[in-house]
Design brief:
The protein is an all-beta fold. Helices cover 0% and strands 48% of the residues. The strands form two sheets. Strands 1, 3, 4, 6, 9 and 11 form a six-stranded antiparallel beta sheet that branches. The protein has a five-stranded antiparallel beta sheet with strand order 2-5-10-7-8, with no helix packed on it. The chain is globular. It starts with 19 loop residues before the first strand and ends with a strand.
Length: 168
Amino acid sequence: MASSPHFDAENPQKQLGSDTLAKFEPRNLNIVWGNDTRYWKMPPKGRSEPAELLQVCWLEVSGSISCAIAKGNKYRISFSISLKPDAFGWNNCPVYVMAKFGKKGKYSWKKNMLSAPDQKAFDIDLEIEPKDGNDGPETIYFGLYEVWSGKWKGGLLLHNATFEQLPK
């Protein structure tokens, strides 16, 4: 086991294009318990593979991006995930996507209920927009969370996260 049980993001996100601002592979995200092989199976360095949640009772995956934002624009944070056939603990267990502008910003959040295991990747997302005073360079903090139920859960595959500006 590594010196810390938590996995810290290794590299900056990959810039994609004009509309999609950034894509985060699993190794580009902070994953609580991600360095402990009892709980997560991380993809090898340099490989674009999902991280596999084996079992946790505290799901916390987070990241951040610094970019120029503008009032009147909307942004979307998406997590691409899938559930393995043997996934467990997700019934009646809400998963939240949360984000905020700046360290002192107020979190916006969206509750998601995961359904029966589906091996196809699907997105859970949150749309956010800057409030008064947010214009120019800013750091956006975001994450995927299930930390409130105390239930053990597993069988989730985390494919990637994206941050994008939505068309007006």
